[in-house]
């Protein structure tokens, strides 16, 4: 019936010229009307209602659901081992149930993988292993702060340097010297590296071999580093004060506009003089500068054109100042020796070394280790023979440093920033000294 109605309407439309969309609208209306007539209730209406299933499309009236968010990545899980005495990289990989192929891939493809060949007892090594048992990533703890992470990439393992940021706290420590600087520092709970650094800071104004006296005092303000509340080591010295033989010396850490770090006195004068007063730490003078000394080996009067510092074999020897190594070699009399030229006028000489750490032509910086104390050549025991020449003439190393050009200073433009930075540190030193009754007079 509906086909018949549609055909009749189409003929009538063509005869009258109705548009097709009007024809379609009319047809739809008639079809809907027909459906309505079929669904009108009759005598057997209840039976018809139960016989026709009601299958409504509910989703057609509900807004589309939001797309599901991806689940978060599972937390990275590291299997960690601590390197034991006698461990090798192969044995560590074997304990982690990894194959020699995994080890070869890391060592042959990862930048800085050479660090893995230098593992030492106490270091932590972490592994991430895939479900298939292959090595996915490897971590090596260099120290409490720095680590290397080797992660599998497309063409091999890639290396990432990871550094933790420790919490920094400042600490003030002080002591009075009764026997030695080391013992005083130990009694005050100051670590060896801090006391050595302090000696280096004051090395241009105090000879810690020759000048230290009983009842000297020191105060040092320095950083301590913590990770998650655990102390992991000391940091930089911020300020220090040393009371020696009626004089007080202060030193403050300062970073200039160019990013260089140095220590300066309260007036802005650099603590780093042109030359150290002594080229090694905390030993004793066995023979001073003496042009008429009786030679201990040949038993004849021969000039002693330097200072002999008696020290255990292996004690580090420092370059007294910046310069260039003009000779590094061995001779029958001098043993292992090093000569360093500083500018045009000055030369320092280091004799009887056990070993040399620099070669001829190398540039060296002040306080850089250039060798180690020994007893090579004409020497009766382990010591360093140290000479200082000015324009080719031997001078007494203990006194010549007082006659050398003055050190650098904080520039005028940076002086306001310097004074502002050290203000609170000066107050701390002054307060601490007053509390302990420290004074230049002892």
From TrEMBL:
PROSITE patterns: LYSM. The keyword Hydrolase applies. Its cofactor is Zn(2+). InterPro entries: Cell_wall_metabolism_enzyme, Csd3_N2, Dup_hybrid_motif, LysM, LysM_Opacity-associatedA, M23ase_b-sheet_dom. The keyword Protein transport does not apply. Its main location: other. It holds the Pfam family LysM_OapA. One of its GO terms (molecular function) is peptidoglycan binding. One of its GO terms (cellular component) is cell envelope. It comes from the Bacteria. It is found in: Cell envelope. GO terms for biological process: proteolysis. This is Peptidoglycan DD-metalloendopeptidase family protein.
